[in-house]
Amino acid sequence: MAAKLLGAVPLEAVTAVLLSHLHPDHWHDLPALRHALRSRAGHRLGRHVVAPLPLYVPGEPRELFTQISSYQEVFAVQAIEELSPVCGGKAGGEGDFTAHLGAARVCFYRTRHVLPAYCLEVVLGASRLIYTGDTAWWDGLADLAAGADLLLAEASLLNVDRPLLPGDHLTAAEAGRLAREAGVKRLVLTHFWPEYDLEELRREAQTEFGGEVILAREGEVYRF
Fold it and tell me: Which of 4, 53, 121, 193 could cysteine-pair with 107, CB 3.0–4.6 Å?
């Protein structure tokens, strides 16, 4: 995915990287991005002309955090758990944290997943993006997403297959329910299992939401 990203966005336009959790499908492109950053920074020529890129990442599992922290020549690695407590205490949890990236404020809310994982809220002016990350449904999730301009929600499986992953992921129907209960303006689905018919996932979410449901596509830009 790093190659896809850099095919759509100039490397110099990437100002930070935020990881919701450390399952391999969410971070294994970091070495490729590291290579690109090393080349840009002129490390092969012994020059350090570009400041390290901020990288926010869960501190657990510790062995993975330690590995990623070794990329310090191009990343300024920050453990999410070492950030300030979350702005406003919206989710009210002890595992909630906040950071400022230029004009944007980012809040990290602990979710329900097999590994330490976070839902991300990005606030820019009066606009809000909520990204669920990988999570099972939990009380308070709809309150957290309430009124968001854009909800980027995982839709890992159809509702009929819910017993396969009882406590780790959202179904498409649950993503639609979340959008409806939260009263969000737009819903974009992501994190699809490859064997599914994506239109079936979209229809299931749309039935619950009632509004427009967009399937995330590589290279697309979603503004909020």
Answer: 121
